[in-house]
Amino acid sequence: MTGLLLFLLSTAEAQETRNLQASYQLSIQSTTLPITIDGELDESVWETAEVATDFWMSFPVDDRRVAKEIQTEVRMTYDENNIYVAAKCYGGGPYIIQSLKRDNMEFWNGDAFAVVFDPVNEKTSGVYFGTNPASVQTDALVSGQTGRRGNTSGSSGINNAWDNKWYCKSKSYTDHWTVEMAIPFKTLRYGEKDRWGINFVRSDTRTNSYHTWSPVPVQFRGVDLGYTGALKWDQAPAIAKGNVAVIPYALASTFKDHELELPGENEVRVGADAKIAVTSSLNLDLTINPDFSQVEVDEQVTNLTTVNIRFPEKRLFFLENNDVFEDFGIPPMRPFFSRRIGLDEDGNTIPILMGARLSGNLNKDLRIGAMTMQTKDQPELPGENYSSLTFQQRIFGRSVVKGFFHNRQQFHDGEFVADDYNRVTALEFDYRSIDGKWRTFAGYGKSFTNDVEGDNYFYNVASGYDGRHISAYSNLAGVGNNYIADMGFIPRSYHYDAVRDTSYRIGFHHWFTRLAYTFYPAKHPKVNTHEIGFRNILDMTKGVQLINNQFELNYSIRWQNTSTLMVMLTNQKSHLFYPFAFTEIPLPIDDYSYTFGGFEFQSDQRSMLSYLLGVEAGEFYNGKRTQFSSTLKLRIQPWGNFGLTFVQNELRLPEPFGHESLTLLGPKVELNFSTDLSWTTFIQYNTQDDNFNINSRFQWRFQPLSEIFLVYTDNYAVELWGPKNRALVLKMNYWLNV
Predict the structure, then answer these.
(1) Which residues, in sequence order, are CB contacts of 445 under 8 Å at separation 6+?
(2) From the CB of residue 208, how many other CB atoms can be counted at a distance below 10 Å?
(3) Distance between CA atoms of 674 and 700, rounded to whole angstroms?
(4) According to the model, what pLDDT value does residue 168 have?
(5) CA 318 to chain centre
(6) What's the distance, CA 263 to chain centroid?
(7) pLDDT in tens, 413-425
């Protein structure tokens, strides 16, 4: 009976979601009149365009319309080249502008407006374009799995590193601010359909609330593709003609390696990327001699686990439709991880000669991806060819059947090395209810490597529910002893032996469970939510021997002024299969059980001066650990952001293992002279990695997506202070539509 009730409830919610596009429709008519993107909204076309208004609250409540004094009005039109969006956002200033930097991570902690497109209207892939009262741009790819609001585990389904060409301008008035956008059809991937999915999202810092035109439940992000309204075209937009962009670059650099005492290297290099629209919804990316020297440096962390840390992909070439390649497996266990291509384990560059990448929709239900990349053949490091084929076939609304085949093949002296390869393939079924609340998925795959036979499987099965109050999720995954994914990231497979300085591969089963209950106090004006939850991470060998068992209880409170507090208590049981070193003397093979607790407080993020404080303390293997972490941010609106991150870990283990003090210090200065001109300097002092890094980047965007970079990087050893290496790069790239 309970199962039947849950089924009927899910069916009713799904029907309600389907009806959104019947209830929320915005008609868009073409125009031949010129529109100047100046934020004025004084063109006559805006007087006759249909208006989308009467926005809903989405957070901290979702049961009412937005008050009249902070409502939003949106109008749209188009011509043969662009889609135009005009918005009037009511509510007086002063407005919060976190930064003038494009795609800054604090964008949604300020006043903002965005339009969300699902051009194929399949609820599995889309894009949004956002701006604020200072005309700062942000854009992102959105998958069909954006998940629960505030969920920081796994993938958010939003890729902010994606950049493309579009235009906007804002203007502020006494009681409102306005937006005008021009989004080229060439920027979008769409089918020949007269109805798109669409929504509009507004952030208002005066009330610390988020609003959407088509209502989105409080537990989901405003950009969730499952809750879009309908954009009704007067006729299906024509396929953009001549949709080809070439992005050549030229750079001059100098590099000096002090550790190897090599002479300095001076280099002049050129290369190019190209973006070709094969169809309006299928894109081909090409690259020759690519360079990623301007990409932001990774933020270092202190790693007190026995597994590797996964850093995000930031290289533009790998980002468009990246979910069609990467969205397999269970985070952080991914059979495909694009940072395996052109980067070594330490993040150092491996030269890429060329590459091609085809991705997008063949039709409204079928997405594909095909990629091949070739790294340079070097005396000390043979070349590698990385190739991938993937597909995602949509069924049952938002559900998909998907599969992949990845291949790494060594390439040396002008030919493929027949016996040096790794191939991985799998099929997955991912069921997601139309309303996004229910999800169940399962997959199975194998790897193939020369001279490695049997026990080469990968499997995963999971189920989850995201309701207004209850959030529950559990997955079970595992790999065999001989499952190898050279193009993937499977951190638990390898166990490091600190005595022999080598790693051993061990198959395992991984079971993750999370359960949380969220309270929304209706009569407390200063508190948005309380949440209590627990999670369990259990890893065992194939023989059901314990590797790791972590059990955590947590409680969090979120205030209306954006402050948050989290308190947690954790018990962990771990087995070391090989000696592992956190200090100079490795811990022995043994079973360990330890308990620790802590808290983390984030202050009001609207304030000019904000901070984050955290403390963890308790047992650590056979000793004690204390961690203090803090982040201090000073915002001088809108041109300056000054930050300082400090993490201090004190490990006190019994003799003879001793004491270890680990310091991570990271001051960061971001100066924005305009929305197109910035200078960012990031310094990282990390005693665990014995590295002091300076990364300073000057960026001038002289035309949309055409930029000049000047990047200085300097690395020093911490323990025996001295230079490791330094580099200076001057680079220019130019976006050319042909």
Answers:
(1) 335, 424, 425, 426, 427, 457, 458, 459
(2) 19
(3) 9
(4) 97
(5) 13
(6) 39
(7) 888 999 999 999 9
Which CATH class for the 2-233 domain? Answer: mainly beta
What stretches in the chain show pLDDT beneath 50?
1-10, 12-14, 153-154
Give the CATH class of 313-506.
mainly beta
What is the C-alpha separation between 66 and 91, in angstroms, rounded?
Answer: 11
Q: Are 688 and 720 in contact (CB under 8 A)?
A: no
> What are the domain boundaries of the chain?
2-233, 313-506
Cα pseudo-dihedral 146, 150, 152, 155, rounded to 10: 0
**Contact of 199 with 229, CB cutoff 8 Å:** yes
Three-state DSSP state, 664: strand
In DSSP notation, 511-542 reads EEEEEEEEE--TT-TTEEEEEEEEEEEEEEET
pTM of the model: 0.89
Q: Are 346 and 298 in contact (CB under 8 A)?
A: no
114: closest CA among 58, 152, 153?
A: 58
Q: What pLDDT shows up at residue 8?
A: 46
β 352-361/366-375 pair status:
antiparallel
Distance CA 334, CA 571 (A): 27
The Cα angle at residue 206 between residues 203 and 210, in degrees rounded to 5 = 25
The candidate with the shortest Cα–Cα distance to 247, out of 320, 165, 162, is 165
Do residues 708 and 699 touch, judged by C-beta distance below 8 A?
A: yes
Whole-number pLDDT of residue 30? 96
- What's the pLDDT score for residue 4? 44
Q: Give a three-class secondary structure readout of 618-630.
A: EEECCEEEEEEEE
**Beta strand pairing call for 352-361 and 72-78:** unpaired
Phi then psi dihedrals of residue 108, to 5 deg: -80, 0
Tokens of 207: 């009330």
492, two tokens: 């638990």
Look at the block and give the residue holding tokens 């000696």. Answer: 579
- The H-or-E segment that residue 4 falls in is helix 2-18
Strands (E), 190-293: 195-204, 209-212, 229-233, 244-257, 265-279, 282-288
Q: What is the DSSP string of 395-456?
A: ETTTEEEEEEEEEEEEEETTEEEEEEEEEEEEEEEEEE-TTSSEEEEEEEEEEEETTB-S--
- 3-state percent helix, strand, coil for the chain, nearest multiple of 5: 5, 55, 40
| Model pLDDT for residues 583-612, shown as the tens digit of each residue | 999 999 999 999 999 999 999 999 999 999
Decide if 141 contacts 323 (C-beta within 8 A).
yes
Whole-number pLDDT of residue 16? 56
